[in-house]
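Researcher: Sequence recovery benchmark, item below. Answer with residues only.
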């Protein structure tokens, strides 16, 4: 009977460690997902800024209105 009790205690200890590991991995996964969302948003914003900059740099001077002194 003592052997059975020892085995049950060992299984309970292992289960507790597994439970802690699962909780830690879940927290890490949530943090990674949050950081990935932030990075994706930053990349989207940078792409938008780049498109706007390219549009501003690529404008044709012939299409610009003349300066006010003309």
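Model:
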């Amino acid at each position: 009977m003592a052997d059975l009790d020892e085995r049950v205690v060992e299984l309970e200890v292992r289960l507790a460690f597994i439970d802690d590991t699962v909780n830690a991995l879940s927290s890490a996964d949530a943090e990674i997902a949050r950081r990935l969302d932030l990075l994706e948003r930053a990349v989207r914003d940078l792409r938008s800024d780049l498109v706007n900059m390219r549009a501003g740099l690529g404008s044709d001077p012939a299409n610009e209105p003349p300066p006010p002194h003309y």
